[in-house]
Amino acid sequence: MFRHPLRPVAAAAAALAAVGGLTAATTGPAAASPASRSRHVLLLSVDGLHQSDLAWYVARHPRSALARLVGGGVEYTHARTTVPSDSFPGMVGQLTGGDPGVTGVYYDDTYSNALLPAGTTSCAGVKPGAEVDLTEDLDKNQDSLDAGQGLSGLPDSILNMTGDPAGLINPAKLPVDPKTCKPVYPHSYLKVNTVFDVARKAGLRTAWSDKHAAYEILDGPSGNGIQDLFAPEINSQAIGYPAGKDWTKDNAATEQYDAYKVKAVLNEIDGHDHSGSHQTGVPAVFGMNFQSVSTAQKLPSSDGLTGGYTTPGTPGPLLAKNLDFVDQEVGAFLDELHKRGLDGSTTVILSAKHGQSPTDPESLTRIDDGPLLDGLNSAWKAAHPGAGDLVAHAVDDDAMLLWLTDRSQAAAEFAKTYLLAQSGTGNGIDGAAKPFTASGLKTVYAGADAARYFHARPGDSRVPDVFGISRYGVVYTGGKSKIAEHGGAHADDLDVPLVVYGAATPHDVRVNAPVRTTQIAPTMLRLLGLNPRDLDAVRIEHTRSLPVR
Length: 549
Description:
Elements lengths: L8 H11 L20 E7 L4 H10 L4 H8 E4 L2 E2 L6 H10 L3 H4 L5 E4 L17 E4 L42 E2 L4 E2 L2 H4 L5 H7 L5 E3 L18 E3 L20 H19 L15 E6 L1 H7 L2 E2 L2 E2 L2 E3 L2 E2 L1 H23 L6 E6 L13 E3 L1 H15 L7 E6 L2 E6 L4 H12 L3 E4 L5 E4 L4 E6 L1 H6 L12 E5 L3 E3 L14 H4 E2 L2 E4 L6 E3 L3 E2 L3 H8 L8 H6 L8
Parallel strand pairs: 1-10, 1-15, 2-26, 3-27, 8-9, 16-23
Antiparallel strand pairs: 2-25, 3-24, 4-5, 6-7, 11-12, 13-14, 15-25, 17-18, 18-22, 19-20, 21-22
């Protein structure tokens, strides 16, 4: 069974009501009958994938696995991910139901004014203020695919990597809690619980596969939400590729890396742990993220093919090839579920942590943010003799997030005014000089306005003091090796696919109403017959299960 003509929402409402799993846009207890509930939910997140990419691919490959998902399930055509549109808030949002203002996770590398710097061992009298790094930098050995576990025979042996990667994090690289003077692990940094926490408490098995050991954040505050977390390090040296190249610097390498996670999930479908060595039963909640679409969008070229988009929204040859790869792997999951007799009891959810901007190559403007921040610090010190740097921490991809050493409204306004006054020269898709104004920014939220933007309390210890939304096409980078990025608030960053397919869902339904990827979390619990309100963020934000009208 492949793609069928899509039924309009009005005509399909009765079918949705009959299955119960996706019916009500509420957060109340699940109402599905035992016969209509899923026993398993497989979540697939494809970094960088836009809804337009999915539509483009399905239109050209009507008998593909991706077309099978779209034509055989419920497609939400106007889904948006979190702002900032980064991997960590995006994935955390999908699995908690919360936005950064509630989860406390704004990016993969942020700052907290309440914690002490990594490595602090004597906490008395130490001034709070610390980087919170959730990247490969936390690994015991970030150059190794196993993050420092010490496996022999890599990369072929990578499936033998531990399912508890918290032990591969170097505690000396973690920020420190001033109250306990102990390192704060990622799962403890998360303010709310996760789908995995709720499932574990209900006695269900859980598993997940992702790109850094720091994804143990998805364990939730309990620290044990995920029973089997497979997290090979994507930013390690790519074995078999030139020295200094990680798995994201060549799209074929990224596909090879993703294939390890695919094999792990296939092993789990077969009722084993990710290694395939131990019989554990099929998880109730499991899945993985794909990274290879993202590298196909960001690399100017790889493997003899041009990356990114040829014209606005039209995938170029490298991206088209990679969409074929993802389709093939999704097909492998569907075939294995059918082979194991699980297709009638498993729901597959397809989405993305984030999109990628720009999809119009001619709009690209690469800007080196280093001189902008250096200039801001110099201007601050000139206006405040004896002061140090104003910028405590910055994250700039295709948005600008600044944490300041002076958290006053006046300091935030100073930064805003300075940045909006700066002009200069960057470079475009062809590498030629391209002028910019206002530091490449369209809108800047400063101080209390930034907190309000994220629905956080002014003065919150984690919220950025300055949040700048860049102009379309701006990517902050000092070189010419990147043609797209994410993290911002453009449609290209935010507009991601969302498809729910399989057990307890009707076929051939398209929902055009706006939805958000944070609605995935309560929907997963409803599908499993659990109460979405057991999620902290769902109660705080009143996050609704996915609607049909």
